[in-house]
Design goal:
The chain is α+β, with helices and mostly antiparallel strands and 275 residues long. The chain contains six helices and ten strands, in the order αβαββββααβαββββα. A ten-stranded antiparallel β-sheet has the order 1-5-4-3-2-7-8-9-10-6. 30% of the residues are buried.
Length: 275
């Protein structure tokens, strides 16, 4: 009598799955698509005088980006001295990049990354300025919001207490520049009550970041210091990864030093084209 391992397993191989002729097609999860890439844009200029002021600012920004270092922190440039026409040309040249940030709390700040990575337009109280850096200073300066400790439900909570213990322990030990620590909720067994309890204990902070580089990534600051909720969605807006990160700011939102150096060269090219 032949041993079982001599025969192929049931349910595998050609003919084991329903085909199109039987009204069944294999369904695959849609993967992210439509990656945004840099496309240089040279604005149309009617008034050379207005263009010269915008060109000088672009040249200054290019020099700032070239001089920027991680140790030096954020470089800020005020554009209040520019008239409306020059600001319009400058905004047209900078465009809108991958990352948008909203800060709501004691301060209301709207931030949009330009098409030049690491060059940010920051609007607060009707005034706008430009910052060069990995992330605008207001994101790092936004303090968490205190939330009361909610009572634990009598039923349904299984893994949330252990997850919270791990998160809070790493958050207490985290220091700026330290290695991040992440918990992947997508791969971790949990109940709906676990997620609800985690949300209530962690709370919501003032900062929300949306990155649209490859699919969508929504990053939310929690009310606990150094703890962020990071969710990735595919091009169909289906959640494909849900995680919690212990870090100063999740890396996906940060502009890399190499990208900022590249932005310096591209800004200089646009400024030269406007001359």
């Amino acid at each position: 009598m032949a041993a079982n391992f001599m025969f192929p397993p049931v349910g595998f191989g050609p003919g084991s799955q329903p085909g199109p002729e039987e009204g069944e097609d294999l369904a695959y999860l849609a993967m992210p698509s439509g990656m945004r890439v840099f496309e240089p844009h040279f604005p149309m200029v009617d008034d050379p005088l207005k263009a010269s002021a915008a060109c000088r600012m672009l040249t200054t920004l290019a020099q700032d980006a070239g001089d920027w270092t991680q140790a030096g922190g954020v470089i800020r440039r005020d554009i209040a001295s520019l008239d409306a026409g020059a600001r319009s040309i400058l905004a047209d040249a900078m465009g809108e990049g991958e990352v948008a940030i909203a800060i709501r709390g004691a301060r209301k700040i709207d931030i949009q990354e330009s098409v030049f990575a690491g060059i940010w337009r920051v609007a607060e109280n009707g005034r706008e300025h430009i910052e060069i850096g990995a992330i605008p200073a207001a994101v790092l300066d936004s303090p968490p919001i205190a939330v009361p400790e909610p009572p634990m439900p009598d039923l349904g909570v299984v893994n949330a207490p252990a997850i919270l213990t791990e998160l809070l322990d790493h958050a207490a030990q985290h220091r700026a520049g330290g290695s991040p620590h992440a918990i992947n909720l997508t791969l971790l067994p949990h109940t709906p009550e676990d997620l609800d309890y985690l949300d209530r204990v962690l709370g919501r902070g003032p900062v929300t970041i949306l990155s649209r580089g490859y699919g969508n990534c929504r990053i939310e600051q929690t009310a606990r210091p150094n703890i962020w909720r990071v969710r990735y969605y595919n091009s169909q807006d289906a959640l494909i990864l849900d995680s919690i990160e212990v870090t100063s700011v999740p890396e996906v939102a940060l502009a890399a030093p190499e990208d900022i150096a590249d932005s310096a060269e591209r800004l200089a090219e646009v400024a030269e084209a406007l001359v």
